Amino acid sequence: MTLFRACLAALLLFPQEAGVAELLSRLDDDAIETRTDAARQLVRLGKAALPEIQKALEAAGGERRERLAGIARRIGELDRLSVLLRPPSRITLDAKERPLREVLESLAKQADAELDLEDVPDGEKVTVACRALPFWEALDQVCRASGKVMYEIETEKVLLRAEPYAALPRRFVGGFAVLLSSIEISSSGSFGETERSDAMNVHVEVGWERGTRPTFVRVQFAGLTDDAGKDLLPPAEELPSEFQVAVGPGQRVATAVLTTGLLPDPKARKLARVRLEVDCGFVLRYGGVAFAEPGARGPQALECPQYAATLVSCRKEDGAFLATLKVEPRGEAATVGPEAFVLKLDDGSAPAAQMREISSDGVSHTYTLTWPMDGKRTPKELAVRTPVETHEERITAEFKDVPLE
Amino acid sequence: VTALLLALALQDAAPRVAELAPELEAKETARIYRAVERLAELGPSAAPLLEARAKDAPAAAKPYLLLAAAEARRAAELPDGARLRRYTVTYAPQDLGVLLNDFQRRTGSRLIPEIGNGAELPDVGVALADATFLEGLLAIARAAKMVPRRDAEAFYLDASPVEPPTFSYGGALLRLETFTQRKLIDFRRPARNRIDLGYDVLWDPALKVVSASRLSIHEASDGLGRKLAEIPPEDGETESFEGDGFGSLELESAGGAIDRIAVLRGELPLRLQKRAVTIALGKPTEGGIVKAHGFEVRIVKVDPKEARVEIEIRSAERKPEELRKLPMSATGQDPAGQPLRASVGPGAELPRFQLVFGVEPRGPGGFVVPNGLAAEKVELMVTLESVERRIPFEFRDLKLR
Questions:
Q1: 20 to 30 A Cα–Cα from A200, which one of A101, A181, A193, B123?
Q2: Which of B146, B167, B188, B194 to mutate to test the interface with A (most CBs of A within 10 A)?
Q3: Looking at the complex, does the CB of residue A201 fall below 8 Å from at least one CB of chain B?
Q4: CA torsion, ordered A74, A77, A82, A84, to nearest 10 deg
Q5: Do A405 and B182 touch (CB under 8 A)?
Q6: SS3 content of chain B, % helix, strand, coil (to 5)
Q7: Which residues of A touch B257 (CB under 8 A)?
Q8: Which residues of B touch A169 (CB under 8 A)?
Q9: For chain A, how far is it from start to end, CA to CA, in angstroms?
């Protein structure tokens, strides 16, 4: 009886999803709610629904065709995003007086995370239990339970330091960790003058799990008050309200410094509320040109909607690959920074470029680029590219009663 | 005979000591240190007299009598340049430019007033009595509501309605320019309160300062008498500066944010040139070799576009590593007779050095590298021996709010 009631409840709460054909037919329904719901369900079905959607798309016309194309595009986007934005780990630990190092190794293995455990004291034991927790939350629990180690997110790994656990102001959202690492309050002046320059810098660390690959992180204040209720955010036009950092491949953390010129009351002992909006950007699609076998051919010119680019010359030299490129960016979206030039080597690696502009006529720019390259490697492709489709994942993190002492 | 000479010297010094000693109990540090400076000028023979007087002196005056004694003993070790010329002159109210021209002529210095676009120089009158060059310059600047600044060998006066805390002693002038109170709340560590002070140092050209180092603090306390600890620079090295004279120091307050620094006392370490040689390089041409004073200087490269001359220096007596430690400077002039000054730095490899020329006076705009340099009459000065001169300083009641 109990089982029957449970099944009935499940059927009522989660009506069985319709098949692809049924959902496709609902796209023509007169009710907008029905059409929207069908589209949402098709997107949720993902790649599995794509062959039938494509087939329907070929036969469709007018509004239906547009709707189907939108659904197919969204499925493609989500599919590309799934490669860049990994679902959070689900860590399960059940340790009673187990060696701390062993517990941390288990955590690292479950999350496929790189933890530097060199500093972890030998012989230290810990008792900790958690079930299906994301990596950062589980790591914080282990460190707190031990009390003898503290984590620090370094550029490409997480370092465990043999120092007392510090309860940083922190928020864990899915596979992301948002930490307030420090706050600096300063007041500067010149002797004899009354004018002062005040600033409060809030240092924010945003960490993510291995496999997640944002290309930028943008952090901004969404609220900031001291314990007397004083609003510490200046009008938006007075200060840059956001801090954006580019994220390189393999990077595990982005550090942002948010500044306000309004200081807490000198007697304030804490910030009552710090609310942050963190946007992690994932590039779903690039637009650009790619020169194949750049070391093996002479000058080449290529064009695309974003660039007209000429590979003027290139050569190998003393552990480096050097290229001179003339680039004409087209449209506002086409940016030219070192990250726009990607050299793929025959082993699949893509070293970071050093860029120097050598001339410009205002329309096109000529750059020399240098990539470190082992003499045994061969460049396979040199691309000039810019993001044309980006997904921004927003995390809202609110901290209360952040101590100022 | 020695005992007799010492007795005579003591007899000479005694009235001056008796005259100046009460000044050491003054409330103003400027008066105290002016007296210390005058007592030190009596030379080593006055030291025993000052030390004897310190034994029975009031607590407030005692450290200054001992400082004067120590300074008097050191006086004999200092190069001639450290014995400063003094000037007594009364200027009736007159145009500052005219006044500075006269003071420049008397002192042989380079003085430039800076008053901003279109503004007229004020009329200034000032009486200087037994003043060193910097004391005189400071008095003129105060009368004109300006502050003196230095850039290389040139001094300029900069309009400033408020005079920052300034301390003058022994031919050096130390001015505190800026402060920053910083509270660092690092959630991994205990919170810290720091005070950064930015300062500027000027010195009398007669001192022939080779380099100046970071201030060394002997005493610092806040308004409640709590000690402010000096924080050494992170790299552990003593910062030294040759050209612009700007420096900074950092103090830590265990008691949180403070309203004022009650006492800031310490020393400014300067290195003074004691023995130097000048090697005339004429108009540098690549491959040219000049031999003088035991040095062989070869012109390796002349780069007019970058106002740069690369030279190679060899010496039978000194290894290349030793040569690199010798302070060097260079002067010259362009074909129109405009004076040039060069900074001398290490080249790509030993024993090479690079001379980078700038136009004199550099003025407040800083080092100006001329386009298409053609340096002539180039002279390379090599300091063979230098001596450390630690200039005492003391500030009181520095308001930070």
A1: A193
A2: B188
A3: no
A4: -150
A5: no
A6: 25, 45, 30
A7: 266
A8: 187
A9: 60
Q: Tens of pLDDT along A192-244?
A: 888 889 999 999 999 999 889 999 999 999 999 999 888 998 776 665 668 88
Q: Does A189 touch chain B (CB under 8 A)?
A: yes
pLDDT, one tens digit per residue, over A55-111 is 998 888 888 898 999 999 888 888 888 888 888 999 999 999 999 999 999 999 999
B184 contacts A188? CB cut-off 8 A:
no
Q: Are A381 and A292 in contact (CB under 8 A)?
A: yes
Q: Tell me the two tokens of residue A154.
A: 């370094």
Cβ partners under 8 Å of residue A362, min gap 6: none
Q: What's residue B242's pLDDT?
A: 52
Task: Collapse the DSSP code of A145 into the 3-class scheme (helix H, G, I; strand E, B; otherwise coil) and give the result.
Answer: helix
Of A169, A192, A403, the CB nearest to B162: A192
Burial of A10 per CB tally in 10 Å (0-12, 13-18, 19+): exposed
Q: SS3 breakdown of chain A: % helix, strand, coil, rounded to 5?
A: 25, 45, 30
Interface of B with A (CB under 8 A): 162-165, 176-189, 191, 257, 398-400
Quick one: average pLDDT of A377-391? Answer: 90
d(CA A388, CA A329): 13
Q: Which residues of chain B have pLDDT under 70?
A: 1-11, 113-119, 152-153, 235-244, 359-373
In terms of pTM, does the model score above 0.95? no
Average pLDDT over every residue of A327-331: 87
pLDDT of residue B237: 54
Length of chain B equals 401
Q: Which two tokens stand for residue B13?
A: 């010094």
H or E element: which one contains B196? strand B192-203
| A188·B179 Cβ contact <8 A | yes
Chain B: residue whose CA lies nearest to A270: B185
- Please report, for residues B1, B21, B36, B48, the alpha-carbon distance to residue B8 in angstroms, rounded to integers and kept in the order given: 10, 20, 22, 13
ipTM of the complex: 0.79
Q: How near does any CA of chain A get to the CA of B197, in Å? A: 10
Q: Which of B179, B187, B399 sits opposite A169 (nearest CB)?
A: B187
Rounded to 5 degrees, what are φ and ψ at A102? -65, -40
Angstrom CA distances, B393 to A65, B165, B172, B216, stand at 84, 12, 10, 10
Structure tokens at B246: 């700007």
